[in-house]
Amino acid sequence: MNAVELVGVSKVFLGKNKREFRAVHQVSLQIPEGEFFSLLGPSGCGKTTILRMIAGFELPTTGEVYIQGEQMRDRPPFHRPVNTVFQNYALFPHLTVAENVAFGLEMENLPRQQIRTRVGDALALVRLNGLEDRRPRQLSGGQQQRVALARAIVKQPQVLLFDEPLGALDLKLRKEMQLELKHMQQQLGITFIYVTHDQEEALTMSDQIAVLQEGKVLQVGTPTEIYEQPNCRFVADFIGESNFLVGRVIEQDSGGVVVLVDETLPISIPCSETFPVGKVVTLVIRPEKATIHPAHYLDQPCLAGIVTEVVYLGTDTRFVIRLTPQSTIVVRRQNIYRSNLDCFAIGESVQIQMASDSIQILGEGQLLPSQTFTASRRENR
Amino acid sequence: MTHPSPSQTLRQKINLSILLFPATFWLILFFLLPLLIVLLYSFLERGTYGGVSWVFTLENYQRLINPIYWGVLTRSLNLAFLTTTICLLVGYPLAFFIATRPPRWQNTLLLLIIIPFWTNFLIRIYAWIIILRNEGVINTLLQSLNLINQPLDLLFNSFAVSIGLVYGYLPFMVLPLYATLEKFDFSLIEASHDLGANDLKTLIRVVLPLTLRGIVAGSLLVFIPAVGEFITPDILGGAKSIMIGNLVQNQFLGARNWPFGSVLSIVMMAIVLVPILIYFRNSENSNQF
């Protein structure tokens, strides 16, 4: 059974001057039990609205939310078997850490002794023993985050909802918490639904990721599927860094296609999908999947260009290579050897080798005379 | 500000006292000094034509034993308490409503709360006579609807005084409540709902405790002046709804017994001091979060 299922859920908000704003549009998702499921997308993509509809803070304009197979339309938040870890933690400032964690159990009218035991267990789980009598204000951001987590976990919900819970933490702490959350999820076996705009976070923790844009689900899949086989340009662009080469199919046979990029550059790619000759397609090439070589290093046909930019990034070096007068491609090379750090200089002619099975073909794209090639970075958006 | 070195502290102290001089001067001249005069007068004998004669006595305080004064005092406290309660019950939902509107609406609604202040208090209280009297708006309306045969006695009793007090002091309740609720983090309500608390439990366990400061501040701002109020009972109340403020006014102006008027003032202040002390203790506690 699915822990949570959304069936054709839409949410329309009325804004100023009664202008309708469509936050979520026709979203259907099945979230299996015990899974770490991430809703990933840029801000304003509707991911938080979806989470709030599962929690019950918003009602879908159309469509239904099911939790454990039960329809949730008439269930207020306090009657749903889910708990939320809020983005700003929303800890009760007038209560101590222990009282905050006990709050949800007191609402269930459990016996005192049981509440005390369970609060102790939850605080031990998030490693906050000894801070029971502090007030939220006396805690660091990371500790507050743990209290919020303990407060939700202590309720032993079927589904735990996270609304960008690590957003306010610094990078190191965030990485620690990511792994800790993942371990906790595996240990407890609770379904986690996790909203984030951080693609790396989603890749690190999730069993499945749903990528959203403008209120719509673009792709649902495992981190590997999402990264290796993005189904559209937005997903390829949002998750990691991608080069996009737009071209026209000029040959098609059972084994694959040949795409003519920029009217001059034929690239042959094996693919199981069929694309009719003449169709405009986009090739997605991850910068780390291309290898850079000195000119005339390879005998086989491959891309050739001139280095225009070299950026040393520590673990790897990022090269921008001009393939044709209008267009460039980004290649990253891991810095394994110190000796060849400076081996490609600006202005040098190079060859680019790509495993043809690591190129993803998208049946979309527009041929623009000036933008046939684009290298775009996620960070630039 | 960083921790000042000792020499800085002295200079800062001097600067501070210069800056605070006008306020200190004002408070000493117009607050502390009159207060001491009132305290002094309460131990003196009354003069023949008003004023005081400089003879020490405790007689004025002994007069308080008379149950008539206790009746007035009790009524004052009751009326003030009732006024505060009604103001709170009406004001809290109102302040909550205003604080949850979009920002552009909040200012307009607050303006509507404050607008009555632009009219003189006396005139506003007199207006209630027109509403409440036998030929007034309410009675005329009820009679024309044939709901009553005889006009209701709405004026010149404690009921009219309560209405006047609630009307007059409601803004003093709403404004501090709004100030507190406006800062209230409404995501805490969602957190409470999320943890299984229904609306009532959320109100009792989360919203009220976190807005207690506003509740206490508003209640004091209503209770304290309401206890000593004399204009509203003077205009809307009859002989039976006299409050301690009327008594003080009467002793100074009518009976020309300044010492006894001073005693009544001091008793009133002592009573009012109790909630103020509670307030300070409360604000010390709430400093913890």
From TrEMBL, chain A:
It catalyses: ATP + H2O + polyamine-[polyamine-binding protein]Side 1 = ADP + phosphate + polyamineSide 2 + [polyamine-binding protein]Side 1. Its EC number is 7.6.2.11. SUPFAM superfamilies: MOP-like (SSF50331), P-loop containing nucleoside triphosphate hydrolases (SSF52540). Keywords: ATP-binding, Cell membrane, Membrane, Nucleotide-binding, Translocase, Transport. PROSITE patterns: ABC_TRANSPORTER_1 (PS00211), ABC_TRANSPORTER_2 (PS50893). Residues 4-239 form the ABC transporter domain. The keyword Translocase applies. One of its GO terms (molecular function) is ATP binding. The complex is composed of two ATP-binding proteins (PotA), two transmembrane proteins (PotB and PotC) and a solute-binding protein (PotD). Belongs to the ABC transporter superfamily. Spermidine/putrescine importer (TC 3.A.1.11.1) family. Part of the ABC transporter complex PotABCD involved in spermidine/putrescine import. Responsible for energy coupling to the transport system. This is Spermidine/putrescine import ATP-binding protein PotA. It comes from Spirulina subsalsa FACHB-351. The gene is potA.
UniProtKB/TrEMBL annotation, chain B:
PROSITE patterns: ABC_TM1 (PS50928). Keywords: Cell membrane, Membrane, Transmembrane, Transmembrane helix, Transport. The lineage of its organism: Bacteria, Bacillati, Cyanobacteriota, Cyanophyceae, Spirulinales. This is ABC transporter permease. It is a multi-pass membrane protein. Belongs to the binding-protein-dependent transport system permease family. CysTW subfamily. It comes from Spirulina subsalsa FACHB-351. The chain crosses the membrane at residues 20-44, 79-97, 109-131, 159-181, 202-224, 258-280. Residues 73-279 form the ABC transmembrane type-1 domain. Its main location: membrane. InterPro entries: MetI-like, MetI-like_sf. It is found in: Cell membrane.
